[in-house]
Amino acid sequence: MRAVIAEDSLLLRIGVVKVLEAAGFEMCAQVADAEGLLAAVEEHRPDIAVVDVRMPPGFTDEGVRAALVIRRQYPRTAVLLLSQYVEERYAADLLAANTSGVGYLLKQRVADVEEFAEAVRRVAAGGTALDPQVVAQLLVRRHSDPLDRLTPREREVLELMAGGRSNSGIAAELVVSESAVAKHINSIFTKLDLPKADADHRRVLAVLRFLGVVTA
């Protein structure tokens, strides 16, 4: 897979590059600002762009705005945002624009080399990866129905779904069978009043409702 990195911190940029190269990614470009990122994506059309949320010149939301442009103009390029702090609204903004090939992780996750590389692979392949701290914060803040109907175990399952885990990944994390996970997911669909449709579509809707991107 081919990747572009946009990060103004030289040390972190070098670290991310080394991690992804070791994981088998081809690094197409390394840039320090949003303008350079958009130019690199236009030139290389990578499978994924790993993007710092805050970059020059304003150090506010330049990375997020560039990510939204990428998802709109280059839909085949996945985007993984990196942030120093939990700012869950950026994850919601990105998911509202596109429900596949997106991720939002705290920069500290880069230190867990294997897990970080796996998250980048998952996003590049069209999946999602949301930082556990972001998911946990969202879980605490959602108090309105129909999410209140979920049992603690169903909330755990939905939290892992929001993090981009497959049924087998959820089963391994919770140490239960895949059939048990499937039953929990079907119960979540029912309690969230999601219409019967293909499983992937309802899965996305459940996660978006959890994130507050769409409401009942």
Indicate the topology.
Elements lengths: L1 E5 L3 H13 L3 E6 L2 H11 L3 E5 L9 H12 L4 E6 L4 H10 L4 E5 L6 H12 L3 E3 L1 H10 L10 H11 L4 H8 L3 H14 L7 H13 L5
Structure description:
By secondary structure, the chain is of the alpha/beta class. The mean pLDDT is 85. The longest helix has 14 residues, at 178-191. Strands 2-1-3-4-5-6 form a six-stranded parallel beta sheet, sandwiched between helices. It is built from ten helices and six strands; from the N terminus they run E-H-E-H-E-H-E-H-E-H-E-H-H-H-H-H. The protein has helices at 10-22, 34-44, 62-73, 88-97, 113-124, 132-141, 152-162, 167-174, 178-191, 199-211, and strands at 2-6, 26-31, 48-52, 78-83, 102-106, 128-130. Strand 3 (48-52), helix 3 (62-73) and strand 4 (78-83) form a beta-alpha-beta unit. Helix 2 packs parallel to helix 3 (62-73). The termini are far apart. It is globular, with a radius of gyration of 17 Å.
For this entry, give a set of tags.
216 residues; alpha/beta; 6-stranded parallel sheet; 6 strands; DNA-binding; Response regulator; transcription
Note the gap between the termini. 37 Å
Largest sheet: 6 strands, parallel
Q: Which descriptor suits the 3D outline? A: globular
Tell me the helix content: 40-55%
**Low-confidence stretches at least 5 residues in length (pLDDT < 50)?**
none
What letter string, H or E per element, gives the SSE order? EHEHEHEHEHEHHHHH
What structural category arises from helix and sheet content? alpha/beta
The radius of gyration is 17 Å
> What share of the residues does DSSP label as strand, in percent?
5-15%
Number of strands: 6
Strand order of the largest sheet: 2-1-3-4-5-6
Domain Response regulatory: 2-122
InterPro entries: CheY-like_superfamily, NreC/VraR/RcsB-like_REC, Sig_transdc_resp-reg_C-effctor, Sig_transdc_resp-reg_receiver, Tscrpt_reg_LuxR_C, WalR-like
Modified residues (4-aspartylphosphate): 52
Protein name: Response regulator
